Amino acid sequence: MSKVNLTIDGIKVSVEEGSTILEAAKKAGVKIPTLCYLPEIQSIGACRMCLVEIEGSSKLQCACMYPVSEGMVVKTNTPAVHKARKFVLELILSNHPADCLTCIRNGNCELQKLANELGLREIPYSGERPKARVDSSNPCIIRDTEKCILCRRCVSVCHEIQGVGVIFPQKRGFETAIAPPFDLDLEDMPCTFCGQCLAVCPVGALYEKEYIDQVWQAINDPEKFVIVQTAPAIRATIGEEFGLEAGTRCTGKLAAALRRMGFDKVFDTQFGADLTIVEEANELVYRMKKGGTLPMMTSCCPAWIKFAEHFYPDLLDHLSTCKSPQQMFGAIAKTYYAKKIGIPAEKMFVVSVMPCTAKKFEAQRDEMASSGQRDVDAVLTTRELARMIKEAGIDFVNLPSEKFDEPLGISTGAATIFGSTGGVMEAALRSAYEIVTGKSLAEVEFHQVRGWKGIREAEVEMDGTVVKIAVAHGLSNARFLMDRIREGSCDYHFIEVMACPGGCIGGGGQPISNDHNIYEVRKKRISALYEEDRAMALRKSHENPAIRKLYEEFLGEPLGEKSHHLLHTHYTRRGVSYRRKNIWV
Questions:
Q1: Which CATH number goes with the domain that contains 343?
Q2: Which of 30, 284, 398, 414 has the smallest set of CB atoms within 10 Å of its CB?
Q3: Where does the 4Fe-4S His(Cys)3-ligated-type domain lie (predicted)?
Q4: Active-site entry in 64, 300, 322, 356
Q5: Active site residue 126
Q6: Is residue 203 part of a domain?
Q7: Closest CA to 360 of 199, 196, 141, 510
Q8: In 3D, which of 259, 237, 244 has the Cα closest to residue 500?
């Protein structure tokens, strides 16, 4: 592709033909403010914050949309540009609540940051505001229309990246609102609760439903034995909430912080991930040998599961029956572990720290109580945990490294990479290969399933059998694969699906970065997980000594009667109907 040369604020820069002024400015090191822009997803000029002057043009132009041309001269720092940007921001703020001190995004709000950078000290305009509405109907996501700035980022992500499309701009002009059709609640829509809308919202219009008070109450209840499990991806992201660089591994500090918060035992969801792999790898081998439904698809991601239930209810037999690591952990904690330490299951309170908002929904599913008690009692996001650590006055950055408690804190490198797209597939292959061949796997890293491509395909030979596999992240990519299965043109044996781009490291409950190129941040987090995997002594789930002991003392064998009862589940044919005034349409 040919190059285009232009000048931005006196800086000469060369970019590829078809680039925008905003992209050229970034290459030149010139910062142009934006609110609605998302790299590779949305450039619509809705917010008008990126206005710039172009020599020879009679009016200001949006840098995020305007294409570069040879010899173009752009100015981003003139009185006219300053005045226009400030005027636009004043209009946005005139229709925005001034409750920054109590807003969940206080200190990490793009609107607040821009107001400070542009030196706004008062709002000269006041008037009527659109009617506000707070939707807290579901266990995962709260939607506050009063704080919405109509940037449409959430709409683009929901439609283009996830292919779900449950929110749209409703009405027109002053009455415009971003909402489901007919202003329905999210719980009445085929929303997957993936939380990607939260991850891109620049303000506090979308945020997770908090369970912080319930967890503190349990910790402070002398009648409760409170244990916590923390998902693999958390160790690579929690540090960002305390000013550390993206991708900083904080495994030891995380365990130390949880212990200081008052949890009775600090465990690792990676134990549940290893257990999931043992069951799932055996399930795959069983299906391939006994003629079960293929391709088998992973079931660790609750947003993906809900997506399949809504949009592909006829294909639910393709899903692995394994519960997710979160739920397997809870079931084992309230049976095997509770008995081992002599604590009644009803007195045990299991808290999960997850990168995912949909995990809150998963924990409340009716199917997730096979032990007679709910597997998991409360789910916190990474952001909620960070708030609790700060509330407790814990100096996270300077904490010493500590280990997770045993036995449910013992894990392998295979479990660590669960947090990255392709990680579940790779972990399963490490175990499935040895189950099928009876041989030790010398090279445990399957680079074929790694990377950022939306759909990745590979073939792995196991004892003379060629196993065809695929990995998809982002529900739009999952939809492509499901359509192929439905039409009979898919010959894979095993498919991994993660709802969030990048996998769990990009979950809706992870730290929100002010860096608009969120995918680069996610790639740094992924690298951290692979680094930790390489540093671990054990890298195959079936070699976890605590897992082996669990089967010897309690479960018996993979896919056995007790495993089936506690560790496996079934799914619900939901369809895509929506409810309006208690009538299904």
A1: 3.40.50.1780
A2: 398
A3: 80-119
A4: 300
A5: no
A6: no
A7: 141
A8: 237
* Residue 500 appears among annotated catalytic residues: no
- Which residues contact residue 40 at a Cβ distance below 8 angstroms, ignoring those fewer than 6 apart? 519
Active-site residue 504, yes or no? Answer: yes
Give me the catalytic one of 23, 240, 280, 309: 280
Given 208, 279, 309, 362, the catalytic residue: 362
Of 53, 110, 283, 434, the catalytic one is 283
Which of 54, 69, 93 is where one domain is finished?
Answer: 93
In a domain, 369, yes or no: yes
If the chain, 585 residues long, is cut into consecutive pieces of 10 residues, what is the mean pLDDT of each piece?
92 95 96 93 93 95 96 96 96 92 95 95 83 92 96 96 94 89 92 96 97 98 98 97 96 98 98 97 93 95 97 97 98 97 97 98 96 95 98 98 97 96 94 90 90 93 90 97 95 96 96 80 95 95 97 97 97 77 43
**Can you tell me the distance from the alpha carbon of 288 to that of 280, in angstroms, rounded to the nearest whole number?**
12
pTM of the model: 0.94
- Catalytic-labelled residue, pool 156, 299, 320, 370: 320
Number of domains in the chain: 2
CA angle (167 as vertex; 164, 168 as ends), nearest 5? 120
Reduced to 3 states (helix: H, G, I; strand: E, B; else coil), residue 322 is strand
Instruction: For residue 240, indicate whether it is catalytic.
Output: no
Residue 133 resides in a domain: no
Sign of torsion over alpha carbons 283, 284, 288, 292:
positive
Expressed as residue numbers, the domain containing 290 is 212-567
Q: Which residue is catalytic, options 504, 532, 540, 563?
A: 504
Q: Give the whole-angstrom CA distance, residue 99 versus residue 289.
A: 61
126 φ/ψ sector (left φ>0, alpha ψ -120 to 50, else beta): beta
Distances (CA, A) of 520 to 85, 159, 416, 534: 28, 21, 20, 22
Residue 122 within a domain: no
356 is catalytic: no
362 is catalytic: yes
Is 561 assigned a catalytic role? no
Q: What is the CB-side half-sphere exposure of residue 9 using CA atoms within 13 A?
A: 16
CATH of the domain at 52: 3.10.20.740
| Amino acid in position 497 | V
Q: Are 360 and 193 in contact (CB under 8 A)?
A: yes
Cis peptide before 407 (omega within 30 of 0): yes
128 is catalytic: no
List 26, 359, 360, 523, catalytic entry:
359
> Is 338:292 a contact under the CB 8 Å cutoff?
no
